[in-house]
Amino acid sequence: MRPRHQTIVRRYAVWHVLRRAKRRPHRPATRHHARERLLLAVRLLAWLEAEGHELEELSQADFDRWLVGGPPARAEIRDFIRWAQRQGLVGDLRVPLRRHSQPSDFLSTDQRWEALHRCILDTSLPLNVRVAGALLLLFALGPTALTTMKVEQVVEHDDGVELLVGRTPIRLPHSVADLVLQQRKVDDEALTGWLFPGQHPGRHLNPGSLAARIKQCLGIGIRPSRNAALAHLAKELPVPVLADYLGLAHTTASQWAGLVERQWAKYIVLRRAGEPGAT
Length: 279
What we know:
Blueprint: H1 3-22, H2 28-51, H3 60-68, H4 78-86, H5 109-121, H6 127-139, H7 143-147, E1 154-157, E2 160-163, E3 170-171, H8 174-190, H9 207-218, H10 222-236, H11 239-246, H12 250-273
Antiparallel strand pairs: 1-2, 2-3
């Protein structure tokens, strides 16, 4: 990459992406979000170099060509373009909004509680699968969030155990708390600092490996399990509380609350339509 483009990426990283990331909860999703923003900026600038152009020369036609030549996630380059416009590095470009599809894959209530019951009581299952499965099914914590969790995020008090994920500690049910404390002891020998230590010294368990183990042992997929847990939490908790517990953006928590509200309203309509004498 040309030295000037390297300087632009460095400025964008230090003065915008990383500064904003530091104001958010320290969790894997925040790091992933920042990394993806930087990678998109690098890819756009590398494409411009291959085309023989500078960033200031980027036209709407060429920009549209770059956007349609890749996956829909390229629309997230909006963040870099807006920053570059404020810096006077690029002209008036329009970035189309990315359309997010509504989640449609959910575990049923019976499937969710059956899997959770197995996590708590089935001692034939591997301990890390039981712990990860319970935290996934109860609190929508996916493999990346789980495997990058430190033992210090498990806080034991005289009256219970809390898990530090977002801004507000999550008080664990006693049955799940016992499992989590057992899992924390695994690191007493490994001394990695990770709640889910991997096979290699100092490394945490691979998220893909954990997802495969959950699927194999419990017969549930990560996405439908996480969707079901988030839908349940969004129905039970106010938006600010949900966001603070899980470290979600308030917009994300609001979207889930809105989805649950729409699903509930649809259920009421269908229920009434099936009642005798309903019109």
